[in-house]
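can u do me a favor
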């Protein structure tokens, strides 16, 4: 299946999930009152806990699925999650793009040279290099070429299959960036040169 069909399918599944949860959220209290068991405190408390779990499930699913990005005038803005964790970066300052995982679990790692008014962008450190050894090898090569530059990283984990579209946008706009072999394979999927298995 190609990525555009997979993204449409993911959106449809998310919409069906939310509609089903809304139906259950509204139907449970109505059934409780129609049956006449609303005087039983145990069932009322159980219903309240069930309603909270439904709301929590919808919140978590929406948080996982939300990814918005926009690129114009060499600036890329990425918003992920309900709480709008927002990143802004200059496309010319991205030096490395790497992906880990496949399909919905894929995460994208950007390494950039400029923080660009972002408090949430972190500098590359020893913990990051231990967790991502392949990126660490590439980072050490970059650091040997430019030892005076401080590098920062951004990780995009949310958004499901929309991350493939973000990766394609990065490939078109970040002309100075180096893309790893894993990211190039995922770019082939986003450009319909390869099917999503």
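np, heres the sequence
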């Amino acid at each position: 299946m190609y990525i555009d069909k997979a993204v449409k399918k993911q959106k449809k599944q998310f919409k069906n999930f939310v509609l089903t949860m809304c139906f259950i959220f509204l139907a449970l209290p109505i059934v409780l009152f129609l049956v006449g068991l609303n005087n039983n405190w145990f069932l009322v408390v159980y219903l309240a806990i069930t309603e909270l779990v439904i709301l929590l499930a919808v919140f978590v699913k929406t948080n996982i699925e939300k990814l918005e990005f926009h690129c114009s005038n060499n600036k890329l803005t990425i918003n992920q999650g309900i709480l709008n964790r927002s990143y802004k970066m200059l496309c010319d300052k991205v030096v490395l793009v790497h992906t880990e995982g496949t399909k919905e679990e894929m995460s994208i790692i950007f390494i950039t040279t400029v923080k660009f008014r972002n408090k949430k962008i972190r500098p590359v450190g020893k913990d990051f290099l231990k967790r991502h050894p392949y990126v660490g090898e590439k980072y050490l090569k970059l650091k040997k070429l430019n030892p005076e530059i401080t590098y920062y990283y951004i990780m995009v984990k949310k958004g499901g299959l929309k991350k493939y579209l973000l990766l394609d946008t990065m490939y078109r706009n970040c002309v100075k960036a180096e893309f790893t072999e894993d990211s190039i394979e995922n770019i082939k999927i986003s450009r319909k040169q390869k099917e999503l298995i």
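Strands lie at 67-72, 75-80, 85-90, 94-100, 107-112, 122-123, 152-156, 178-179. hope that helps!!
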